[in-house]
Amino acid sequence: MELVSFLEKLNKISLFLVLFLVPILFLPLTQNFLDFPKQILAQILISLSLVGWIGKSVLRGELKLRGEKIFHFLLFFLSTFILISSFFSFSPKDSFLGLSLDFVDSFLNYLLLIIFTFLVLNSFDGKSDVLFLISVFLFSSFLAGVLNLLQMYGIFLFPFDVAKSISFNTIGTPNAFAIFSLSLLPISLIFTFKSQRILKILFGLTFFILFLNVLFVNFKTAWAGLIISILVLFVFGFGKKNFSSLFPLVLMLGLIISLFFYLFPLTPQVFPPLPPEISLSFISEMEIIKGAFSSNLKNLILGTGPSTFILDYSQYRSPLLNQTLFWGTRFLRGHSMFFDWILTKGILGGLTLLFLYFLVVYYFFFKNLKKENIFDIKLAIGASVISLIFVSLFYPFNFTLWFLFWLLIGIFIFFFSQRETHFKIDTPKKGMVLNFLFISSLIFCLFLIFYNIRWYLAEINYLRGMESTDLGKGISYLVKAAQLNPLMDNYWRDLSQLYLAQANLVAQDQTISLEEKRNRINLMVGLGGEAINRATNLAPMNVANWNVRGFFYQNLIGIEGAENQALASYRRAIQLEPSSPFSYGEMGRVYILLAQNYGQKGDEDKKAENLNLAIEVLNKSLQLKPDYPVANYLLAVALDQQGKLDEAIQKLEMTKNLAPQDFGIRFQLGMIYWRKEELEKAKTQFEEAIAINPDYSNARYMLGLVFDKLGEKEKAKKEFEIVLKLNPDNQEVKKILENLEKGLPALEGMVSMQQSMGELPPEIKK
């Protein structure tokens, strides 16, 4: 019996812990410091609770299931369907485990959350236990609400950098917190009116704090959800004898406030100046769904697979998004939870979720009044669930909102479907089946603990590596991360860039011998190539992997075959993201580099051929986004190398206006004016580049040459002295200063520097 008692405590205490910790937990040790630690903790505690529940059932010789069979069947069908959708996903690894930046929409996560719903439903015999469970969650939400109010008004309690922002909270974005709060308002309100003494005060404070969070965030969708829940409370609660006379007054006041802010979206000065939340529009998501469903029948029926929204967005988004400020942003989620679900789980998945919604609404409207003794609690739970269902049509869910959704579903079934089914374990065959389930759950729990700890440690090392200013340490951290969790493609992708940066540093190191330098560079390039190829093998549908692979080999042009690898990578990226101008622009960059190489070798035919190819793909980039600065800039470079200086100048002058803070464009324009010997115009461009970036050595170098040509030797000398301070080992600059001291031309006995190819593309880590 002691073992039974232990397993029962394991079952229940694990649930209490996860309910208390999920709303308030954050750990600033990983790049995803909110959802990821919550999910890791929840998966471990839910699996421990499952072990306790199955174990105590085995030892008692009885399996007890609460609720109508249709609910249990629906939970089982949902789990099975998501498994099938993940299996047929075009990115199965991501569908089963989740993405590195968003682990929520994965089979593993949904499985644990559905198990969580099952445990909430079946772990407690009495209603008082479930009410205490709700109270624990409300108390934790109260703490999260107080913290959010302090944060919004600039009172930062935590020393971490991520927490020093008015938009920081422990739930998600400010809008997500408003959704979270409104979903708990009906429960906290009913608990306030039904409790006595100190509990009435505590629940009343919780209601007040949660309402203030909805008010100060002032999110229109949250107001709409609150209006829905208030109307539900009005329709079913008005005139009931077991409610205080203050109850309708509170509802009326809440309805007036909600309608006012919904109809008149004003932001009073006393409200905190929260930044706007950027999300995908409904029309944009419909375009993506249309593209995905029309591509094949599997997508229509089963969806593209869990955790594939970002991949769908890349492949099917409208080119019209290129005209917005966020054309280069890849959204992890879409317009709403419901439409994200339809896209990634298909029509069949959407119908299953709609059926769950229908069951909730049916049981609430047609079975709500049958049990008058718990009418008030059922009313509160029903209003909360219905408001959250409504909001799911207009807002995407993060982990905490999904957790709240499945918690409320479990509590709803507990109160609205009170039928119990008992299975006696009275035969050896039944005992063997349950023993097998117990052993399986124990193994599953141990696997989750082991895997999640390794994954969390990997994420810690990944963040340390990306934040490290020491390149060697950064590589060590990322290698450790990849060893702990080799399934994350972003670890390998970013590791390849660090290896490339290390190779560039070695190439510039003048303290080692030529042979050692060659060996080190070959080692770094080999390791980098292995890493980026590992990334593309792990996630071949992720366009970011192919763009970085193209960038990696683009930097190796000159080595046999590197240009083919770079071009093949960008072509694959274009297939995966056909509406983006980025990969077309980078292909143009590769062709220009090849043209430069052929020009140095004296092969004018090959040079002309590659310049023509560059202009062709750059024009395709500009067809997608006419104001794309990188493509305009590179097109000017290609025209310049064709000798069409006037056309190049015209293109760069236009590009300057598109990118007012891009000093590289001004430098390139200055170089063309320099070659045309229009020195005053060249001087203006180099000075503008320096005004944007005072440490830009190339611009100061060329400005010094311009001053030298204009006969302003002292100004030239001053510029080269600054260049020398920035580059103390540069022998060329030292020679120039010697020439100027002797009254000679700056480049006496020397050759002028080659023109720059510009800055790194924006997707690449710097």
Walk me through what this model shows.
With 766 residues, this protein is mainly α. Among the domains are: 124-268, no CATH class; 682-766, Tetratricopeptide repeat domain (Serine Threonine Protein Phosphatase 5, Tetratricopeptide repeat), CATH 1.25.40.10. The chain has 31 helices and two strands. The chain has a two-stranded antiparallel ribbon. α3 (69-87) runs antiparallel to α14 (337-367), α7 (174-194) packs antiparallel against α15 and α22 (562-576) runs antiparallel to α23. The longest helix is centred in the middle third of the chain and has 40 residues, at 428-467. 47% of the residues are buried. The model is unreliable at 752-766 (pLDDT under 50).
Give a short overview.
This protein is an all-alpha fold. It is built from 31 helices and 2 strands.
Number of helices: 31
Helix share bin: over 70%
Order of strands in the sheet with the most strands? 1-2
Q: What is the total tally of β strands?
A: 2
The CA-CA distance between the termini, in Å, is: 62 Å
- Stretches where pLDDT falls below 50 for ≥5 residues? 752-766
Report strand %: under 5%
How would you sum up the global shape? elongated
Radius of gyration: 31 Å
The largest β sheet comes out as: 2 strands, antiparallel
Q: In terms of structural class, how would the helical and strand content be classed?
A: mainly alpha
Mean pLDDT: 91
